[in-house]
Amino acid sequence: MHRTLVFINNNFDSRLGSLGSDEKFFLQQLQPKYDSIVRHYSEYDFKDAVKELLELSSTGNRYFQENQPWQLVKADRKKCHKIVTVAANIVKDLMLLCYPILPGYSEKVLRLFGFSDFARLGLGELGKAVSVERIGQSRIIFAPIEETISIAEIFPAVLRVGRVESVEDHPNADKLYVLKVNLGGSGGKPKIIQLVAGLRQHYGRDELLGRKIVVVSNLKHAKLRGYESEGMLLAADDGKKVVLVSPVDSQPGDLVFPEGSDADKIASSRKQLAIDGFYRLGLKVRDERVMFGLKSLRTAREVIPVDAADDAVVR
Fold this sequence. Notes:
This protein is of the alpha+beta class. It folds into 2 domains: 2-136, Isoleucyl-tRNA Synthetase, Domain 1, CATH 1.10.730; 154-314, CATH 2.40.50.140. 36% of the residues lie in helices and 21% in strands. It is built from 12 helices and 14 strands. The strands form 3 sheets. Strands 1, 2, 3, 4, 7, 10, 11, 12 and 13 form a 9-stranded antiparallel β-sheet that branches. A hairpin with a 2-residue loop joins strand 5 (222-224) and strand 6. Helix 4 (46-67) runs antiparallel to helix 6. The two termini are 30 Å apart.
């Protein structure tokens, strides 16, 4: 957000531009996300509120990156002014939504947009175009919001690298395999778990045997057609193709965690995770990486790769 405001300070004398129909339409598409965050607050569901705030921040960052205003300002200054004005509006709305959990930080940013009466601050300006013609001079207040909020606190999944040791057809289901997976271990004795996975339409048994995968190791166990599954493997699905998330350099037992997070804190979690809790993490593919918000999933050895299209859902 700092770079958006600094760009306006430096290139447009801190002045905001007008919004065309395309820009207004883009901002209108964010309203359901705003409504969802407000609903989470009203239900005291701060974990999901923070998760969606990070997603909103990612949307704004992606909009800025994809439009490349640092190039556009040379070729089409008027269009560039509209683009950065949209980005500034997202910053303003993000700060309004962050105010309940980061009041000091949000107040400093909102003052740049002309807000002053914080005792009466509400959501009446949410989704409305910034009312001031000029913003204040931006400066780095402290670390970005993504770094301010502890990722470990909102990432309850314990993901481990596993290696498939055996593959059998499920006797009671045409689409399922029963896998034995090595999750590492200690003292030279591997930890072997059983997974039931719906991969028979996508992978042959020989393709799976010996393959490294990523497993949700703290998922609540479930019986699938009579066979217990002690976790779930990760795969990317774009609606046309299912692709396994397969580490290259990592070894069985290696922890998989969002880049920049406290890996030890995530690894120490003993809380079992329900399947819907895992789905709420909203893992997606971006640039052939598995992403949690703006953070790539990785081990200590590598960023986890996946050969799938952008925005494919990982689950």
